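Dear colleagues,

I hope this message finds you well. In preparation for our joint manuscript, I am sending the NADPH oxidoreductase A-like isoform X2 (Crassostrea virginica) sequence together with its predicted structure, so that both groups work from identical material. I would be grateful if you could confirm receipt.
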Amino acid sequence: MLEWIVAGLLCILTYAVFTLSTSSGSQYEDNSIDAFISKESPKVKTRPQKENKYKRDYSSEGQQILLLYGTEYGFSEEVARKLFDRLCQEAASQGTVWQPRLINVKYFKHIRWSEEQLCVLLISTSGDGVPPTDALPFYEMLMNSGEILSHLHYAVLALGDSNYPQFCKTGLSLDKRFGELSAMRMLPCQTVDTEDWMVISDWMNRLIPAIRATDLAVKRPLTVIESEEDKETIHCEFNIKGSRLTWIAGDALGIYPQNNPRHVEKILQVLGYTGREETHPDLNLPGYCDGIVTCKEMLLRYLDIKHVKPDLLQLIQNHVSCPQQKEQLEALLQVPSELMEYLSQREVIDVVVEFKTGGLSVHEFLSHLKPLQPRFYSIASSPQVDSDTVCVTAAIVRYSTLGRDREGVTTCFLQDRLQGGDLCPVFISRNPDFRLPSNTKTPLILIGPGTGVAPFRAFLQERALLSAEERGQVFLYFGCRHRNKDFLYRQELEKLVAESVLCLKTAFSRDQKEKIYVQDLLLQDAQLIWNSINEEEAAVYVCGDARHMAHDVHKVLTKIIVIQGQRTPEEADQYLRAMETQGRYQKDVWVV
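The corresponding structure tokens are as follows:
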């Protein structure tokens, strides 16, 4: 029996050796027994691997979109992949340079949060409120992080099962935490019950327009600053490609600013708030979407901390503990003129520091602040030249009162805190009463000192596109303090002069002993102005400060009509009113 077993084993061994030495079906290129027992790694015949379309290495510039997913059984990853595909399709159809990156949250240590601009998190909740196993380190990191993410825009899709009490707890908690770290919520956190594709699809449809928010593409100085008296003015360009925003030369850009984080922190500190207190804002707040917002986020993005409502002083009076301060506030509130004088020099930080309060709830305090309003800037570019880029010109506001440095909310937001590539919520504000004449041969008289030149830059861009035969003559009256310090867009304007597109008249008020302003230039050209508006039916445009410049220009135009047109002041006033009715005297002015 034993001999039979030994013989059988020998046969099997002989067959194995023969097969290894001759078979063409082996995975080795060298089919010999030597290759089989070689200590060196043999070359393996490998099938060509399919390209992983979700693994991208972008070599060109574009808008990075971080797609993070945390999953237990794979559904969050499936949704994230579909979102990745959707973003790529939208980018291709709209010509937008979106660059989505798909990353499992278990690899969060490779993420440099300081360099991210936009993050979309898709994460499930396992069982009763527990993060997915692989996502737990990321969850704990974010919940314990103190890193400020005010530069980051984000949205969260929370997936879960409503059969569990802690439905979607992981996603909801992370959404709240992003907000506490000052990240900017693009959409309210969306919860998804099991695999509800209808809800997911609707969320994606809302997410795409939110991602199309504009970003600051270019920011450059227009002035030279050598002393505190010199004006600081910047040129900003916003990339609106894919946003579907459209405008006409003469329109304005509305910008939603953010308050200075240092001022917000000071207010929170003085009032004893953590900043993490939850609030339920009024849906009518400018720029607000939906959902719970922390106290800190409200003060940073949605409420005006620069201007004090009298109601806030009344509220503080009810909570001050010091009898003398209570009497001071009571007396102040009873005299409107003194109250207005007091408020004109103070901001919210001044009031909460001056008057010590106790027991002032977060809700009471926030409800007595004004909404933070968007600011409007005349658009300094024409869509006929570039419909994907909208430009504005901003004079930075800085000053001091009561021993404290002050700043313009939006201008200092643009200059000090908004960097190239940062997203910035904007919208177009129509200005139908400030439009170029339909007849391109109509002569133009443009009067715009300082940043008032902004819309005229757009007008001139359009006139420059026309041939000499198609366009009428253009006179621009521009003024600033110094030729070599704040002559805005000097090179562009002088180039248009050289190309015979423009006749430029300049007034530099501080370059000589006697100050000269644009209204002085208008008087010097009185006959030219009168002949242009009376014989050639020129259109007159004024842009800038309403309180002083526009008022003075109107008086000068009236005087020119009286002298050159030999009219009475009343007739001159009627003449200008008639020009306004005809659309030949248009103003884009503001109070500074």
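For the figure legend, we might mention the following. Residues 2-22 form the longest helix (21 residues). Residues 355 and 419 are 36 Å apart (CA to CA).

With kind regards,
E.M.
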